[in-house]
Amino acid sequence: MFLVGASYFFFYFSNNYLISLLIFSTLLDFYVGKAIFATKDKKKKKILLLSSLAGNLGLLGFFKYADFAILQFNILGQELNLNPDIPFLNLALPIGISFYTFQTISYTLDIYRGSLTPSKSIWEFVLFVSFFPQIVAGPILRASHFLPQLREKISNNGLSTRLRTITIHDTALRFGISMMALGFFKKMFFADNIAPLVNEIFQVPYGLESFSVLLGSIAFGVQIYCDFSGYSDIAIGAAAILGFHIPANFNKPFFATSPTEFWRKWHISLSSWVRDYVFYPLVINNKKSKLRIASSMFVTFFLIGLWHGAGWNFIIFGVMHGLYVSIQTAIRAVFPSLQNNSFLNSKSGKIFSILLTQYFVFMAWLAFRVHDFDDLMYVLYKYMVWDFATTETLQIISHNQIPIALIIRFFILHFISFKTNIVKSLSEIKIVYWIIALFGMMTLILFFYDLTPEEFIYFRF
Description:
Layout: H1 2-15, H2 19-38, H3 42-79, H4 97-113, H5 122-130, H6 143-153, E1 154-156, E2 164-166, H7 170-202, H8 210-241, H9 259-265, H10 268-283, H11 290-308, H12 312-334, H13 347-369, H14 373-384, H15 391-398, H16 401-419, H17 422-428, H18 431-448
Antiparallel strand pairs: 1-2
Helix pairs in contact: 1-5, 2-3, 2-4, 2-5, 3-4, 7-8, 7-16, 7-17, 7-18, 8-13, 8-14, 10-11, 11-12, 12-13
């Protein structure tokens, strides 16, 4: 009850009256899940599942995409000389709706598939949906992973059969604090101090030099990674202190050697969700059809792009990654011998694969960052066709020396993290050195803090 109260207070503080949407999704899927499990009628099961999907996706679609849809209708009407003037709704986007909606949908789908039994009580389901560390920006939880932990971690304390406690262990406390400290360090030291460079470059994208576009794409890639993985680390650390294990949302994505591997390492909770609940169901009966697999990939990545936001740039972002994965799949099918190629399996070959993969990954970040379609087409062209001009790029570098230095230091630390588990190593050192390390990170954060904190990027989704 305490954790539920804390979670609802946290969410109400962030969202105010929009907490009613969270309550609606929670009650809908709790009772629909119980009804699906109780009935043996397949038709009734499908109707119940559809009611859950309609309710959840209806809310998500209405609040997140209504104005985008109205804009497209107005543009289409103007092209057809119908001169429509549908007014915008100007709805507030409920924080976290993209995350908790997917959590409750996966719960209902798992019960429908027979791989999960319903929650034993409404309170444990309420906590699963609203668990405060991750509700605002993930990672996206699965009931099959969280509920068993909840039942295991909460035990009788011997004083009363009704009063239950969560024991906080020293190792979990140190690990959780270390994880949270690293998350704040990524966000407030790296992401927030790289943001001015990114904002300056993309403030007026049209007319940028190719090297400025390249620099901007790298800077934004580092910014969004430190921003989003920073939040994930904070959420995972806070949960760890309470004794809950939340799966990692990132696994060194800048060392991915292919587009497919990148999505196994980036935003893992989302990519695995769409894989299990969108891609697999689309291909389950047509595993041998290459056309079906390719089209299913496009649908999956289209939805990944659309999930991120109501804008054509996000759709383009998803389609670009869909193209990457489809091309990679086609190349492997046509040239199966590449898997055993001596060069690609060598150290030099892996470095080449990493650089090639990241070149295209950073190109896709342009679609994520530049919202205007004409500006986006311009920067994509400049990214692929270099003009070798350097005048403006050198000026940008000259008065952004600190962000440039931070980007270089980030990649050095990222390489170190490839060899070492930094959080685990930090949490296991002697207590004196641990305190000194935490104090050092806090000092760096405060030293570079300019009183204008940047909002977490994924709060917008």
